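Notes from hallway chat w/ T.B., transcribed later so I don't forget. T.B. wanted the structure written out for a chain they're using in a teaching module, and asked if we could keep both sequence and structure tokens in one place. Agreed to drop them here.
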Amino acid sequence: MLKLTKKADYGLIALKHLAVNQAGGSCSAKDIAECYGIPLPLLSKILQKLVKGGFLRSEHGTNGGYKLARDSRDITALEIIRSIDGPIILTSCFTEHGMCSHSERCNVREPLRKVHEGILRLLSSITISDMSQDDRTDPELPSSRLYALGTAGQAQDLRNKTI
């Protein structure tokens, strides 16, 4: 099962929070943690990692906290996930070594590579700004992202299934 780690999930939550509340200045780690029920020590480590990655700025002082270092339209979900968790690997076929005892006879390596690339394209097409949009009344918006996974026919098949 492909699943985001809690760290990546919390990082995306924090960035979305900062993008939505950027007009109000910076936000403290404590405020974000309390707002979403995230353990403060863990969130603090994640935020520091995002500062080191150039996604956030840390401001010290009584009114300090965290702010986005880049425009939310220029920060993708893929960048954040990679920054926090490292590379996204669907199967061991896609690591540096990329070989297993079944490599020569494997009949799913190429289809899985396409799925892997589709997931990466999808994550790289979703920005923090996209995630921050409250108005999700457009029924075509979520399904339009599925086209990143492959052909229109494949996307149509995906829309007819529960994902």
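Follow-up for T.B.: The chain has one domain: 6-132. Might be a good example for the class.
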